[in-house]
Amino acid sequence: MTIYKKQPRNLEETSQATIAESTARQSAGLTSLFKGSTLSIGEPRTASVHRVTGETDITLTLGLDGTGHCDITTDVPFFDHMLNAFGRHGLFDLKVEALGDTEVDAHHTVEDTGIVLGQAFAQALADKRGITRFANVAVPMDETLVMAAVDISGRGQAYCELPCPTERVGSFDTELAVEFFYAFARDAGVTLHVRELAGANSHHIIEAAFKAVGRAMRYACELDPRVTGVPSTKGSL
């Protein structure tokens, strides 16, 4: 592709190469990545998802450009607390009503809420035009430090290292935090890394992780006024 050719040495060749480069960018659909944005940032980016299975019934609404207003009911109190932390620190307006077979345990409710939240993000982001795409955050909580990094890549995958010193926080199974992030990343179509850099208290570790992922998603979803098209050299995500 002409864009990647070695720079010519004289003025005539330089002019010809510049024209060829511009033509190549236009034909590849990359021009919009290199000029100021015309994206209307006033358009609301919202989504509503309702998902019913034999184990859960979940209704969720999401506003990406909100103020952090949350209304969460899942019948899993610690999980409600974590979703509130995610929404509040991500500045997402988030309403979740989840009914699940919590008489068995909280696994299906937590995992399926991750699925639905991921679907809502994918829906609200639409074609991903103008987004920042990449973000990383390290969040401290007393002795704990957790890092989250995200790429809104279109390739849903998560890599989590969140060792907790206890099996439960109250009645909440600490393993479910990672299950939530796996489900969320897969259905949101994002690449997500969550790493515990320091920590001794299970509550602090999980809460710092939810705050870090919420804040990283906030920054990755934000609109960059310098980007018009999709932030990818491929032209799509």
Automatic annotation (TrEMBL):
Pathway: Amino-acid biosynthesis; L-histidine biosynthesis; L-histidine from 5-phospho-alpha-D-ribose 1-diphosphate: step 6/9. GO terms for biological process: L-histidine biosynthetic process. Its EC number is 4.2.1.19. It is found in: Cytoplasm. It comes from the Bacteria. NCBIfam families: PRK00951.2-1 (NF002111), PRK00951.2-4 (NF002114). This is Imidazoleglycerol-phosphate dehydratase. It comes from Enorma phocaeensis. The lineage of its organism: Bacteria, Bacillati, Actinomycetota, Coriobacteriia, Coriobacteriales.
